[in-house]
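To: structure desk
From: M.T.
Subject: fold request, one chain
Message: Could you run this one when you get a chance? Sequence is below, nothing fancy, just the single chain.
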Amino acid sequence: MGKYAVKRILLMLMTLFVITFMCFVLIRMLPLAELPIGDPHSDVIEARREAAGYNKPYLVQFGIFLKNIFTKWDWGVSDVLYFGQEVSNIFVSKLPATMVVNLYSIIFSIPIGIILGIFAAIKKNSWIDHTISTLTMVCISVPSFVYAFIIQYFLSYKLGWFPFLMKSGTNFFTWSMFVSMLPAVISLSMGVIAGFTRTTRAELTEVLTSEFMLLARTKGLTRTQATVRHAMKNCMVVVLPSIFGQFISIMSGSLIIEKIFSVPGVGQLYLNSITGRDYPMFTMLVVFYTTVSLAASIVVDISYGFIDPRIRMGSKK
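Reply: Done. Structure tokens follow.
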């Protein structure tokens, strides 16, 4: 397991390096944001771009970029959105909002999704199972921003239960802030709930029809006892790694949802950096999202070996 983990981490770093290089070059090939004529800050921006190597070959620019990161943890300075501010400082200030909203959605989604999946598996081929399975497919197929508009219309506009937008500020754990987050949390949770429901139902249905479950029933266990003691344990071998992956990926957030509900997080910052052509900001966020995605996949794979000792990652036999 240790060798497998080291191998996966090295492959992750290699993949991250390649993706970062490709995105860096493609971003630097784009035209720079125009500077206002007569702006006293234009000379400062031009000097900063020259120091970053914008007038040099792409390989030299990438080398300067890596050198600044590894020696000074300098990701650059925002030229457009937050003039003169360090990109890394802006990112750190926006990250808590994204993490809190997505953390609430995960905490809300996991128990509901697993319970619905268990209920559908136990009531297999009944109208309850068909109803849950149909709703699951609908929820998975519909994008999260569609739920956002529906929630805004019915819960915010018609019923007036929630505000249209998330409150500003950093007091994320107050009741008023929590209420303002709920529309975004519910919108993010719909697809996650459906995913956990489908996974749990599929795995539990397969386990319930296996031979060892029949053996457990013949030994005198009731259906409920056999399900709780044996079926759920085997089902969690697949469900738990997906939970770990979701917790790792909560930092990535949801770009569109954060924009719709004005969540002052990383997702909205990412979209603004694209539209504003703030390339230092955009480059750091690309590296961040890539790292989160790769790390989540590694955690999911490695967790299989810890959850079920019969699984040996990287074994040749």
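Reply (cont.): Residues 95-276 form a domain with the MetI-like fold fold (CATH 1.10.3720.10). Let me know if you need anything else for the meeting.
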